[in-house]
Amino acid sequence: MSVAHTEITSQANGPCGDDDCGIRDVLDRIGDKWTVLVMVELGKGVRRFRELHRAIPGISQRMLTLTTRRLCRDGLVERTAYPTIPPQVEYRLTPIGRSLAKMVEELADWSRTHKDAIADAREQWDVGHPGDG
Amino acid sequence: MSVAHTEITSQANGPCGDDDCGIRDVLDRIGDKWTVLVMVELGKGVRRFRELHRAIPGISQRMLTLTTRRLCRDGLVERTAYPTIPPQVEYRLTPIGRSLAKMVEELADWSRTHKDAIADAREQWDVGHPGDG
DNA sequence: CTGCATCCTTACCGATACTG
DNA sequence: CAGTATCGGTAAGGATGCAG
C-alpha cells in the first residue's frame, strides 16, 4: 500500500504509546485494495488461481498474483503448485491466516452494523460542506 | 487512500458473498497512513489539534487536517471549536468512534501476538526469493 | 492455467508558504 | 493556534502482451 515499510521492523512510532506493536504492517496488508477479498474467499476453502479470479470481480491477474504472493510471504496463505499440464495451483489459509481472517470477519460485522450510521453521518456532513470530498 | 470510493454505496461486490457489507469503506478509513494513530490518541481522551500534532510524530499539518476531517465526516470524531483568540479546537471520539477504536485495539493485539511469526515467515520467504519485495 | 514484464494513469502524501 | 492553497515526487494499481 501507500505506506509500504517492507521491513516489519522499521517503524518510528506505533499507535500503542511509543512502541511499535506491528499494527502498521497488518494494516499495510489488509488495508490494500484486494487482500481482504482474497482472504475472505480463501476462508471458504481451498481455491485455485482461476477460482479466486472469478470469485473476485474486478481484480486483474496482476493484482491477484501480487496479493496472493504477499499473503504467502507473510505466512498467511500457503501455495501448493502441482507440476501438471496445464499447471494447477492451490491456495489455502494457514492457521495464522485463519486467525487473521477471523479478525477481518469481525471488522466486516462491525461494518455491517454501522454502515447506515456512517452513511447518514456523511450525508449530514456533505450537506453542510458542499464542495468537499 | 488508494481505493477511495467516496460514496459508501458504490461497491460492486463485497467480501461477504455478493452483497456489500461496507468493510471496504472502513478499510479505506483505517487503512490509510494516519487514521489509526489519530484514533488511538483520541482513545486516550480529548485532544486539541496541536496536541495531536505533537503526539503523532511525522504527521504534517495537512494530513492531520485531512485525517481528522474524514473522521468527522464519518461521524467517528466530534469537533468542537471555541471562537477564542487564538482559536481552540477539541477533538473527541464519538460513541461509534470508540467502538471502532476498540476493534482497532483488537487488531493491534493480534499484531503484537503474531508480529514475530510474520517477521519469521518473511525472512524465510526472502531467503528463498532473492530480488523480491 | 498461472504467471511475468511493461507502460501509463491516478492520487496519496510531504514540503512549503500563507491566512484569520 | 488551527487551518488553507499549491506544487511535485512517488508508489499503487489497471491494461495489455508474452511465456512456460
From TrEMBL, chains A, B:
Keyword terms of this UniProt record: DNA-binding, Transcription, Transcription regulation
Entry-linked InterPro entries: HTH_HxlR, WH-like_DNA-bd_sf, WH_DNA-bd_sf
GO terms, molecular function: DNA binding
This protein's record includes keyword Transcription regulation: yes
Domain HTH hxlR-type: 21-119
Residues spanning the membrane: none
PANTHER family: TRANSCRIPTIONAL REGULATOR, MARR FAMILY, TRANSCRIPTIONAL REGULATORY PROTEIN
Protein name, UniProt field: DNA-binding HxlR family transcriptional regulator
Taxonomic source organism: Nonomuraea africana
